[in-house]
Amino acid sequence: MTSPALQLQSLRDAWQARWAAMPLRERRLASAAAWLLALTLIVLVGIRPAWRTLSQSPVQLREVEVQLDQMRRLADEAQLLRQRPPVPPAQAEAALKAATDRLGEGATLAVQGDRATLTLRNVSGDALATWLDEVRSAARARPLEAKLQQVEVGRYAGTLVLSLSSTQPAR
User: Could you give the CA distance from residue 124 to residue 106 in angstroms, rounded to a whole number?
Assistant: First the structure.
């Protein structure tokens, strides 16, 4: 067996012998083809991906800026909610029951201490979103657990567990 170094040396020697035997015109054509191949590889491997990245970056930057603005708005809203004074338990429970009544027959509320469990049967997503917004602002309730399933397009069933605690969460 020959070593890879010897095999490489023999290939190199064969190539040099072949190159020396070529007429000058063929050597020039082969050199031009090699340079053209090298230039093509440089463009395809080095320049084209960088060019694509540069052309896509303004679009990606706009998307990131939109996401950042949305995150900042949510952070500001969370800060405002933290700064609101706590609601007395009786008032929180009354606000929660009033909001649940607006959901109709598809919603049942069970309150035990500082926890409330809402059971949903075929309630629309829009009504649920409105209910969540209302109980968050009026009752200062925080969702702890949600087990929801979409029963039809835009309609949900499941349970939501909320905390009615008047203490503020740790920051």
Answer: 9
